[in-house]
Amino acid sequence: MIFSNMIDWLTNGANWQGPEGIPTRVGEHVYYAVLAVLVASAVAVPLGLFVGHTGRGAVFVVAISNALRALPTLGLVTLFVLLLGLGDWPVLIGLIILAVPPILSGTYAGVQDVDRGVIDAARGMGMTGWQRLWKVEVPNALPLLIGGVRSAVLQVVATVAVAAFVGLGGLGRILLSGQKTYKFEVMLGAAVLIALLAVVLDQIIAAIQRLVVPKGLTVAAKAAAPTRGGK
Amino acid sequence: MFGDIGTYLSSPGNRDLVLQQLLEHIYLSLLPLVLGLLVAIPLGWTATRFRWLRGLLLGGANILYTIPSLALFVILPAIIGTGITSPVNVIVALTLYTATLLVRPVVDALEAVPQHVVAAAVAMGYRPLARFFAVELPLAVPVLAAGARVASVSNISLVSVGALVGIGGLGLLFTKGFEIDYLPPIIIGILLTLILALIVDLLIVLLRNMLTRWQRVGAHVGGGS
Amino acid sequence: MIEFRDVTKKYPDGTVAVDELNLTVEAGTITVFVGPSGCGKTTSLRMVNRMIDPSAGEVLIDGEDVRKSDPALLRRGIGYVIQQAGLFPHRTVLDNVATVPLLSGWTKAKARTRAAELLETVGLPAEMGKRFPAQLSGGQQQRVGVARALAADPPILLMDEPFSAVDPVVREGLQDELLRLQGELDKTIVFVTHDIDEAVRLGEKVAVFRQGGVLAQYDAPAEILARPADDFVSDFVGRDRGYRGLSFVDNEGLPIGQVDTVLVGGAHSPSQQWTLVLVDGDKPRGWLAPGSTVDGEWTTADALAGGSLYTRGTPLRGALDAALSSPAGLGVVVDDAGAYAGVVTAEEVLKVIESRRETAE
């Protein structure tokens, strides 16, 4: 009954048009999520490589990552909006903060996990620090690094939905509007779309992971389940 | 700002609200942790016994874990027939997350029990169920504890999302604070969430240390197997 | 008594692990199953406590088909020791040893008292009971494994390559210990190994298995060495079986000669012969080469290190070792108290072996 109502709503052409239609909301959802993860990566990947390569600040990275994982997403976005005012950027700052820890710890762990014997061999062959980083450590770290990005995407897709509460666009807006008008089929339809979006994005990154990870490491990539934080 | 928090907390009504939501939050996050463990252990055990089930179970767990909590809080009542604001939704959803998070480590831990130890247990006359509780499960404790730490932090952070669909917990402080444009309840909510996560984490570590004294003894004599 | 009657183990893929095995293990003896890997020796062992069930035939313990027993109850009455010891890493040594008594319903206090006694029986100090397996050496872990298998005082002990993972020196100690224990306990022991030396050292009877799970020969070890049933057994026990045979020959008929001796601290006039240095009146310490001279008194530092010592009355293998390891080419013979008794040469030892073999054949 409720599911057939939901399908009616999902298949109603009117819901697929206009600035509040499903395609627009999906586009917004993806846009905010990708933007946040890109900015977070720009910060977290170099930092993770630096810490992993030099070993400096490792304790700090681990502690910060763990502490940030416990942050409630709803609390964080409401806090930033109240502090910085309504708008996209305050919410995006919250999203970026949530996306940094998984990428940072994934990158760090990836570099850290590279077999010490491999590093020694690279040094023995006369590679400079930079060469070791690019030719040995980064390729070997890719599975865990992308695993970290994958967790970050999941985290951010979930949080964009939550952030509809403070006015950010995306599929969460449809869900909350359904709640306001007591249309459960609309809430359910939006929830299903959010779930689908998360699964599809996750699979896309999984495919990228398979493409860019060096062949010799695919076995290792399978074994390294991404460490995931909240949603 | 701290003055504002003091002002907020000086009202007995607010204090009651915070305390009540904190207790609700503890209940909604920790009950699923225990339930999730109770689900994951037999599931993981089954997966080690029947190879064909293993891929199905781990793959299913992976996809379930991908679904954002807000979506799951809305989809679950449509499936299990509860009201949208029922706390059961949060409990079931977080139990599912906990179980999906733990099932792979459980499988790995059970498979990591050395074959010779299992063989010795069988040869001494343990029946399968008794052997599981006497040998395999105690040896899996370190891995289970590591999984439980991740799951507890995740659960404690996720309960807040329930406030969006009208379920209690510290998330209520965020929605209320936002609606009246007032920071103190939000800051109190964030701080209490972090402190709760920290305390539960410490408790799990303590419990693990009690159960794994054997693991932390230094080997006095090297060699041998 | 354990009987294998027409026992065959065939796996679904067609592999035959054990082929029509017929064999009786006498009560109160050590019987060793030996053979190359894949010969079915371990499979046969594991059919006794039903870790594996045969596809055909039956295994009887004291006339009773093991398949009539509940596997768990059957196993509690049979001790089992394996290569890696298989100790429970999460339990203390004492609780490891107490496992089977507890399973059989003993009280905790009684089981622990028994476990403490057993640690002593296998030569481990009682304090070790509080440790965890990771804190023990490989040899100590094996002793605990033996103690654990003995805990419920089972009449039968199954041992699957129990000493293969420890280093040779420790292994010999463990073998001696097992022989001593068996002298006290009088169990029916089935022992699996791939090492023929270990087999002849421990076994009262030895069963040699060949690939495909066929029993090639079942006999007393001296018989197997002296009269291998076929080329396979002959190859397996090795061409140097004459040397292994020394393990069974005492020194009856071995001529023991004498050499010049000198006491440490005493004066010594240069001799054209090898001279044996003694300490404490009669304990051999080393050799002086012919014609060697030294100013003043002799000290132990002037002596060349001697080889191994041969204790009179023990197997001839020791005599040959002593002769071959001595710088003088003369093996030093001592009595039970370790006092100098004489010397032997390698040729004399070998001559005794030859004459024994001739009389045996």
Automatic annotation (TrEMBL), chain A:
Gene3D superfamilies: MetI-like
Parts of the chain that traverse the membrane: 30-52, 58-84, 91-111, 152-176, 188-208
Stretches assigned to the ABC transmembrane type-1 domain: 26-205
GO annotation, cellular component aspect: plasma membrane
Topology with respect to the bilayer: Multi-pass membrane protein
GO biological process terms on file: glycine betaine transport; transmembrane transport
Location relative to the cell: Cell membrane; Membrane
Domain of life the protein comes from: Bacteria
Keywords for this protein: Membrane, Transmembrane, Transmembrane helix, Transport
Family per similarity comment: Belongs to the binding-protein-dependent transport system permease family.
Protein name as it appears in the record: Osmoprotectant transport system permease protein
Species of origin: Herbihabitans rhizosphaerae
UniProtKB/TrEMBL annotation, chain B:
One GO term of the biological process aspect: transmembrane transport
Keyword Transport included in the entry's annotation: yes
Ranges annotated as spanning the membrane: 26-45, 57-80, 155-174, 186-207
Membrane topology note: Multi-pass membrane protein
CDD domains: TM_PBP2 (cd06261)
Database matches in PROSITE patterns: ABC_TM1
UniProt KW Oxidoreductase keyword: no
Domain named ABC transmembrane type-1: residues: 22-204
Keywords: Membrane, Transmembrane, Transmembrane helix, Transport
Subcellular location, record wording: Cell membrane; Membrane
InterPro entries according to UniProt: ABC_transp_perm/SBD, MetI-like, MetI-like_sf
GO cellular component, one term: plasma membrane
Domain of life: Bacteria
Protein family membership: Belongs to the binding-protein-dependent transport system permease family.
The protein, known as: Osmoprotectant transport system permease protein
Organism, as annotated: Herbihabitans rhizosphaerae
From TrEMBL, chain C:
SMART domains reported for this sequence: AAA
The protein's Enzyme Commission number: 7.6.2.9
ATP-binding listed as a keyword: yes
Domain ABC transporter: 2-236
Enzyme class: translocase
Highest taxon of source: Bacteria
GO molecular function: ABC-type quaternary ammonium compound transporting activity; ATP binding; ATP hydrolysis activity
Pfam families: ABC_tran (PF00005)
UniProt-listed InterPro entries: AAA+_ATPase, ABC_transporter-like_ATP-bd, ABC_transporter-like_CS, P-loop_NTPase
Keywords: ATP-binding, Nucleotide-binding, Transport
PROSITE patterns the record matches: ABC_TRANSPORTER_1, ABC_TRANSPORTER_2
Family: Belongs to the ABC transporter superfamily.
Protein name, as recorded: ABC-type quaternary amine transporter
Protein source organism: Herbihabitans rhizosphaerae
